[in-house]
Amino acid sequence: MKKYTLVFLAIGLLFSNCKSDDDVNGTTPVVVQAEDTDGDGVPDANDNCASIPNPDQADTNNNGIGDACESSNFTPLFPCVNGMAGPFPCDGIDVMSVFSTDVLAGNSTAEGSDVWGWTDASTGKEYAIIGLTNATAFVDISDPTAPINLGRIATAQGTAPWRDVKVYNNHAFIVADGNSNNSHGMQVFDLTRLRNVANPPEDFTVDALFTGVGKCHNIVINESEAVAYLVGCNTTNNGGPIFVDISNPTNPTFINDYEAAGYSHDAQVVTYNGPDPDYQGKEIYIGSNGNTDTVAILDVTDKNNVISISEFTYPQTAYAHQGWFTEDQRYFILGDELDETSFGFNTKTLVFDFSDLDNPTLSSTYTGPTAAIDHNGYVKGNEYYLANYRAGMRILNLDNIGNSSNAMTETHFIDTFPSSDSAAFNGVWSIYPYFQSGNIVIGDIERGMFIVRKQ
Predict the structure, then answer these.
(1) SS3 category, 253
(2) What are the residues whose beta carbons fall under 8 Å from the beta carbon of 82, sequence distance 6 or more?
(3) Would you call 277 helix, strand, or coil by DSSP?
(4) What does the CA dihedral 415, 416, 420, 423 come to, rounded to 10 degrees?
(5) Hey, what's the signal peptide range on this chain (predicted)?
(6) Strand 202-204 relative to strand 148-154: parallel, antiparallel, unpaired?
(7) Which helix (H) or strand (E) holds 21?
(8) Which residues pair with 136 in a beta bridge?
(9) Which of 266, 269, 213, 270 has its CA nearest to residue 242?
C-alpha cells in the first residue's frame, strides 16, 4: 500500500499580520497520510475504484463507480447458465473470451503450456503471458471480452512442450524444456514495451538471454528477493536449483547452484513468515522432486551455504509434481501428477502440515469428482485454483484446510475439455488467478488461452 502525503499549511499564513503558535515555535506543519490501496496514485478518498488500479479514473456511465470495478461492463462470451458456459460444463464460472493456440503462436500445430500475468502499475492494465510450443505470447486482457494479441517472442532454440514464465520488476523470464532445447537459456523481456505496440501482433525480440543454462523445466522467483531459481535444468548439478541474480533484469548473473537434493520438477520460494519460529525471515525453498518422489525443504537464505531442513515422501507416491503454500504458510498443497494413472485414483491432492518445517506431516488428502490428473495449483486467499487437465479448472475452498477430512471443498469449475474427464494429458495446464480485477487466465494445451471470471 502506498502512502501519499498531504501537507495542510496553517491558514493564518495567508494573513501577513497574523502568526500561529506553530510559526512562533518553529514547529512543523501537520502531516496526514492518505491511503492508496491499489497504488494507482489516486488516494482512496478520491478513487472511484479503490481496489483496482485505474489512474485515469474512467467512468463511462458517470455513476461514480470506476469502469475497472464494474464487471457489468463486460458481457461474457459464454455465461455459465444451468451448468453450461456455451459448450463447456461449468459451475459459477463465466467464459469471457478464448484465444486459440494457432492464433497466439502463428502456427496451426502449436500447443499451450504455462501461463502467468503482469499488471502495469503505471496504467493498471492487465496482461496475460502464455508459453507455447514455438513461442511465448503476450495478450492485453484489460477488456477480458476483447483481448488484444500483442505479439510473441520466438523460442530461443527448437520447439518445446514445456515452456515456463515468471515475472519480476516489469520483466518476463522464460525457460523451456524439450529434446531440442539443450542450449535454450533463459530469455528476458521488458514488459513495459507492451504499452506501445503500434501494429499487433508483433514479433518481439528479447532484451537479454542468459546462457548459463541450457534447457530448464521451470523457473521460480521469490518476488521479495531479486533471485530467480531455475530448476530441472540439463546442467551438472543433477537438476537441482540454480540461483541467478536478476536485480538488473537485463544482466542476469549466476550466483551458485545446489545439487544434494536432486532434480526439482517445480518449486516455490518464499520469505518465510509461517508458524515455525526457527525459520522466521529465512528464504525457504520447497522443491517438488518427482524423480525421487520426495519434497525437499531448503533454507536458501545464503546461496553459498544452502541448508537442508528436511526431505520427505508420502504413501503411494508416483511423481511429486508441484505444490503451493497456503497464505499463512502453515499448509502446503501438493499435486502428484502420476498417482491417478498409477493407482487408479480419482484426482488426488495432498495437504501437508508445515508448522514444523523439520518434520512435515500429511494432514489430509482431497479426492476430486473425476479421474482427471491434477497438474499445477495456486492459492489465492482462501481458495486453491487447480489445473486439473481434462477436468478443467477447479476452485477449492480452504476454510477447513486444517481438518483431517473434507479439508478442501470444490465451489466452482469450468471444464475446457468436455469430451472426457479421464486421466490423460489434455486440457488445462496451468492457471493465473492473481489479477485484482477478477480476471483468471487459463492455459489450455489444445485450445489456448481462456479468460474467465467467477460469477
Answers:
(1) strand
(2) none
(3) helix
(4) -90
(5) 1-20
(6) parallel
(7) helix 21-25
(8) 131, 153
(9) 213
C-alpha cell at 452: 474467465
Q: Whose CA is closest to 75, among 91, 92, 59, 95?
A: 95
Burial category of 420 from C-beta neighbours within 10 Å (exposed 0-12, middle 13-18, buried 19 and up): middle
443 touches 119 (CB < 8 A): no
State the alpha helices, DSSP H only, in 257-375. 339-343
Instruction: Name the one residue in this structure whose C-alpha cell is 480485477.
Output: 437
78 DSSP β-pair partners? 95
pLDDT digit string (tens) for the chain, length 455 residues: 443 333 333 333 333 343 444 443 444 444 446 778 678 889 877 888 865 788 989 877 665 667 776 555 799 999 999 999 999 999 999 999 999 999 999 999 999 999 999 999 999 999 999 999 999 999 999 999 999 999 999 999 999 999 999 999 999 999 999 988 899 999 999 999 999 999 999 999 999 999 999 999 999 999 889 999 999 999 878 999 999 999 999 999 999 999 999 999 999 999 999 999 999 999 999 999 999 999 999 999 999 999 999 999 999 999 999 999 999 999 999 999 999 999 999 999 999 999 999 999 999 999 999 999 999 999 999 999 999 999 999 999 999 999 999 999 999 999 999 999 999 999 999 999 999 999 999 999 999 999 999 99
Query: What's the topology of domain 79-454?
Result: Methylamine Dehydrogenase; Chain H (2.130.10)
Torsion of CA 70, 75, 79, 85, to 10 degrees: -130
Q: Where in the chain is the domain with CATH 2.130.10.10?
A: 79-454
Q: For the range 55-59, what are the long-range contacts, defined as Cβ-Cβ under 8 Å and sequence gap of 24 or more?
A: 55/122, 55/123, 55/124, 56/123, 56/124
Q: How far apart are CA 132 and CA 107, in angstroms?
A: 10
Please answer whether residues 251 and 244 qualify as being in contact, where contact means their C-beta atoms are separated by less than 8 angstroms: no
Burial (CB count within 10 angstroms: exposed 0-12, middle 13-18, buried 19+), residue 20: middle
C-alpha cell at 180: 531440442
> Rounded to whole angstroms, how far apart are CA atoms 140 and 441?
12
Task: Give Cα separations from 375 to 24, 204, 391 (angstroms).
Answer: 69, 30, 11
Q: Exposed, middle or buried: residue 9 (CB in 10 Å: 0-12, 13-18, 19+)?
A: exposed
| CA 141/CA 274 separation, integer angstroms | 34
Cα–Cα distance between 408 and 403 in angstroms, integer? 9
* Phi/psi at 372 (5° precision): -65, 155
